[in-house]
Each structure stands twice: as C-alpha cells, then as structure tokens.
Amino acid sequence: MNALFSEPDEHLTTAFDALRSALAAHGPLPAERRAEALEDLARMVIRHGTDLAEAISRDFGHRSADETRLAELFPVVTAARHARRHLRAWMRPERRPIGMMFRPGRGRVHYQALGLVGIISPWNYPVQLTLLPLVGAIAAGNRVMIKPSELTPETSSLLASLLGELFRPDEVAVVQGGPEVARAFSRLKFDHLFFTGSTAVGREVMKAAAERLVPVTLELGGKTPAIVGPDYPLAKAAERIAVGKLFNAGQTCIAPDFVLVHASQEAAFADAFAAAALRLYPTFEGNPDYSAIISERHRERLLGIVEDARRLGGRVRSLDAETGPGGRTLAPVILTGLPDEAAALRDEIFGPILPIVPYRSLEDAYAYINARPGPLALYLFSDDRQTVAQTLERTVSGGVTVNDTLLHCVQEELPFGGVGDSGMGAYHGEAGFRTFSHAKAVFHQSRFNGSALTRPPYGRRVERLLKWVLR
Ligand code: NAD
Fold first, then answer.
1. Taking the CB of the first residue and of the last residue of the chain, which one, N or C, has fewer CB atoms within 10 A?
2. How far apart are CA 125 and CA 117, in angstroms?
C-alpha cells in the first residue's frame, strides 16, 4: 500500500481487488470497528497535528499552522467524534408508516453500507477534504480507497502512512499520483465515488463514473457571492468578508469570491476592506499568519487575473507591493470598475483577489447571481428580517451564512454540498452517513394480511375493492 505508482492501472487494481475481496468475504465494517476507527482517527490527527501542519506548510511554501489547526485538524477531530457518538442512532432502522390496505405489515428503512467507496481529494485543505469524507464513509461501514492530491505530495504521503497504521489495506487504501492515476481511479467500479475538486474535472469524473453507473457525490467550486445589504454596517461586513477571503490566502472553495455592494457604498467598502485586511495582516510577505499560494503556476494564474482586469480598464488596488517572480505570497488585491467579461468576474478566483460589483437594488443583485451558475455558498450581510428571508428565497446556493463567512461549513448538523455547477450531493455529520449508505426499503408482511384479496383470478371482489379505493 501507499507507494507512488508509475503504472496506474495495475497498482490501482491490486489495491482495489484487495478491498473488493475483503468486502465479499467479510461484508461491511461492523459497528464496533467503525466506532473504534473513528476514535483512532481523531487521536491520530491530534497526535500528528504538528507533523500534518508542517507537511502542509512545506507543500504550500508556507501555510499558517493556526489555519491548519482551525480548518483541518479541528473539523476532522470534531467530525470523527460526532460520528462516533451518533453512530448507533444513525444506523438504527427507521420505522415508516404503512398504508391502511397493507397493515398490519411493517415498513422500515435500513441503512446499509454501500460497499466500496472511492474518494478523490484536492490540495487546498488536503487533510480535511480527505478525512471528512472518510469519516462519513467509515461511519456508514464502507471500505475506502483514497486518491489525495498530487499538489501536496508531503501531506499525501504522510496521510498514506498514518492511515496505513490505522487501517488494514483491505479496509482503507491510499493511492498516490497525478491526473493519470486519478483518471484510472475514476474508472474503477466503486459503489460510490466522492470527488472534491474543480468543476471542470468534476465533469470528467462524472463522465467516467457514468460508464460504469457509479453514483457520484461532486463537491465542486464556483463563484461564491457576498451581498452587503444597504442596512448593514460596512466596516463589520468588510472585516468578516476579509476574514473569509484571506483565510488560506483565498484558496478556499467557500471563500467569498466577489462582493455585491450598493453602488453608493462601493468606494467606502473598498476602503473598509483594505483597512480590515491590514488590521488582520499588518504585513503579508513573511507574516506567519498569512499563507502562501500553492504553486508558482497558481500565483501566475492569479497575477494573470489582475493583469486582465488592468488591461480592461478596471481599478487595481494591491495592499502591498507585488513580490517578484518566484515568490509564493500574494498580497490582497481589490478590483473595481470591471466589465463583465473580466476574468475576475468569469472564473473562480481561488486567491486573495476581491472584485467588487456594485448593485442598484437587491433585485439587481439577485438577477446578477441567478444569471450565473449555482454557487457553492452565499453570504448575506443584513439585519433586516425581510431582506434575509427574501434573499434565501430568491437565490440558490449550496449553503448560506448570514452576517459572517465560512461558518455554515463547520456545523456538524448542517449538510454541506453544492448545487448546479458547484456540485451534487452533500456530506458532514448525518448527511455524510446517509450519502455513504444505501437506504434500503424493507416491507415485512405479517402472518395475517389482506393481500389474497388482490390476487388473480380477478373478479367482483377486486372490482369492488378498487371501486372503493378509487372512489
Ligand atoms: P482539481 O479538480 O484540479 O483536482 C482535484 C483532484 O482530482 C486531484 O486529486 C486530482 O489528481 C484529481 N484529478 C485530476 N484530473 C482528474 C481526472 N481527469 N479524473 C479524475 N480525477 C482527476 O482541483 P484542485 O485544483 O485540486 O482543487 C481546487 C478546486 O476544488 C477549486 O475549484 C475548488 O473550488 C474546489 N473545491 C471544492 C470544495 C468543495 O467542498 N466543494 C472543496 C475544496 C476545493
């Protein structure tokens, strides 16, 4: 297990076959094993927290250790323990009411492990986005094969070896490699494939899975809007948006991608955002709290978005002098006055660049959002109950946080997932358990029942019965 494979198909198949054979021989993981594995996983993350933070930081060039603790270690430990605590209740078959004609038969839903689950994860939160789906899959009793990101090789190797200590290779296997391995991975006949990554690759994954009718959960990206209501204190909104935008230097799937602000407040909001960002991070280069961009290529891409804005006549306000080529830090950049065709308004930004889009009325803001693909998250800042209710009703997004950013994602009792181009399906907490379970309908016929009344030869008896039912 856990080697960096050069011949994807052969090695993937070996790991896959071991998991399949174990599933055939021993079935899903029993409840005791799930509970034990979840607690072990939580302890492993705590014990190796520093190792994981250091590995991620090496992969990023620099990643704030506190950000890693807050956004990778804490969510995984909480989720694993929450799942362990609720496991028995989630697993319990649910009684369902039975139609009068079929009584006294009994109806239940049994939640059964799907079997063998594949998980493909991205680089931006390499621990959280690998281990949170694993928590759901293990809680539901599945065996799991994981393909972490090739862009975080140190973290992926460490995860492979740590998981190798916790699980037998016929319970959980980790395979590493780039897009070739990932492509081969997505062609395997899993019972469920859970993918987190970009919308473009998600489309490829779904195509590959469709070939073998493998059901998918897709946790994708997109452009998450933040709407600042005209009634809300600007400085407060700006600070909370800055926190959500600059965490992990904007490399967060639910970071506010752009901000919709009333046209009369556009300049004031830009000032408030700049002031808030500089309070949070008095410096950027060399600040241990401020994370680097994952690779030079990604930094170049972000600088390209800024350059494109400049070329199209937008106003560019960088909060620090740009570092030269080769640097991995990128100070926040505020963009205003952009035409619709600007890359900053078309593509997911995934970095510390914030375009501000003015609106004249909230109706305009809704129209702007609804004319674009369904976002993964939406942030609304308003204390007006009607504005909140109306915004929830008029916009579609995977999730919403009102009067803050990011926080709906760390609520164990809330499902997390996208809609439209930002994905399908959900996980976290019980939603994760259900995603990785088959809800099996079980009807249990009672010894005494009326089903003989509807058997052939049909005649007056059935006719009378149907006349009564269809009256
Ligand atoms: P990516 O799509 O480039 O890669 C994700 C994973 O897919 C990697 O492990 C990669 O090896 C694999 N992969 C690459 N090509 C593949 C193929 N043809 N078939 C199957 N797998 C393939 O994404 P990324 O750059 O690692 O991550 C950033 C993107 O992920 C952003 O768009 C972000 O919004 C999104 N994201 C979404 C969530 C969410 O929860 N919805 C969370 C984090 C990131």
1. C
2. 20
How far CA 459 is from CA of 40, 62, 456, 462, in Å, comes to: 63, 79, 8, 6
Q: How far is the CA of 463 from the centre of ligand 1 (A)?
A: 58
Residue with CA at minimum distance from ligand 1 atom 9: 149
Query: What's the pLDDT band for 8 if we cut at 50, 70, 90?
Result: low
Residues with CB under 6 A from ligand 1: 120-124, 129, 147, 149-150, 178-179, 182-183, 186, 196-198, 201, 204-205, 219-221, 253, 348, 350, 376, 418, 423
Distance 457 CA to ligand 1 centre (A): 59
Q: State the closest ligand 1 atom to the C-alpha of 148, by its place in the atom list counted from 1.
A: 9
Judged against a pLDDT cut of 90, whether residue 79 lies above it is answered with yes
The residues annotated as belonging to the active site are 219, 253
b/e code 32-50 from CB counts within 10 Å (16+ = b): eebbebbeebbebbeebbe
> Distance, CA 359 to ligand 1 centroid (Å)?
32
pLDDT reported for residue 67: 98
Checking if the pLDDT of 2 tops 70, the result is no
Nearest CA to ligand 1 atom 34: 221
For residues 203 and 355, is the Cβ–Cβ distance under 8 A? no
Spatial distance between the Cα atoms of 129 and 149, rounded to a whole number of angstroms: 10
Cα separation, 127 vs 119, in Å, equals 13
Q: Please say whether the beta carbons of 145 and 117 come within 8 A.
A: yes
Kindly state the DSSP code that residue 342 receives in the 8-state scheme.
Answer: S
pLDDT in tens, 430-470: 999 999 999 999 999 999 998 888 899 999 999 999 999 89
Apex CA 226: angle with CA 224 and CA 230, to 5°?
Answer: 160
Euclidean distance between CA atoms 128 and 122, whole angstroms = 10
Ligand 1 centroid from CA 198, angstroms: 4
pLDDT per residue as tens digits for the range 36-76: 999 999 999 999 999 999 999 999 999 999 999 999 999 99
